Amino acid sequence: MKIATFNVNGINGRLSVLLDWLVQAKPDVVCLQELKAPDERFPITALRAAGYGAVWHGQKSWNGVAILARGTDPIETGRGLPGDESDTHSRYIEAAVGGILIASLYAPNGNPSPGPKFDYKLKWFDRLKTHAAERLAHDIPIVLAGDYNIIPTERDVYKPERWQDDALFRPEVRLAFQELVGQGWTDAMRALHPDAQIYTFWDYLRNAWGRNAGLRLDHLLLSPAIAGQLTAAGVDREVRGWERASDHAPAWIELSI
């Protein structure tokens, strides 16, 4: 089974990129982030024509997450991250596909930091850790995939010294990510490529793509019940160079299921 995560940065504006990539990569499951579309504008007709069922949690102009499944409809098990009923951001959706519980998440950016947006990011991540621990206690196959908006280590960014005060790289968020992984999750990309230079995001500014000035922001975490079935992981980085591309490239894993 091939599972991917892809921040599309506007699903309707970049629908042709997504559809072309689906034909090329043929993932079985895709977690999408930053739909930037309300529920009624999610392009389900085009996706069904491409062979994918979907569940989605949209929001006008901002945020938005979805899960696609090839040849079937995901069975939704939750939408919205528990722990704060006042939080109306569409940043989390969860579904069962092929016996695996899969979450698509879009964590807050948090900039500028310090400030209210950074505080929200830390609180949101605390809620994610609580929810992840509860799910982990069931000892079932789980994949937490998405744009975490966190650069975990210095090897995950082209020039660490330039990002020290950024909300993506501050010590507080890196520690939060370490604490999440420390619950027992496996960072799939690093499990198979511990020392490789791997980026999933290149800014539109300052020719970041041309200079390969990238960041690793998109992660797939595996529960112990499924981590042993990981066989491959990678990034379809060439998609970032396509016309009208997102500033993210799809990251993916393959499981022996």
TrEMBL record:
Its EC number is 3.1.11.2. Residues 4-248 form the Endonuclease/exonuclease/phosphatase domain. InterPro entries: AP_endonuc_1, AP_endonuclease_F1_BS, AP_endonuclease_F1_CS, Endo/exonu/phosph_ase_sf, Endo/exonuclease/phosphatase, ExoIII-like. The keyword Magnesium applies. Keywords: Hydrolase, Magnesium, Metal-binding. GO terms for molecular function: double-stranded DNA 3'-5' DNA exonuclease activity. Its cofactor is Mn(2+); Mg(2+). Gene3D superfamilies: Endonuclease/exonuclease/phosphatase (3.60.10.10). It comes from the Bacteria. Belongs to the DNA repair enzymes AP/ExoA family. NCBIfam families: exoDNase_III, xth. PANTHER family: EXODEOXYRIBONUCLEASE III. This is Exodeoxyribonuclease III. It comes from Mesorhizobium retamae. The gene is xth.
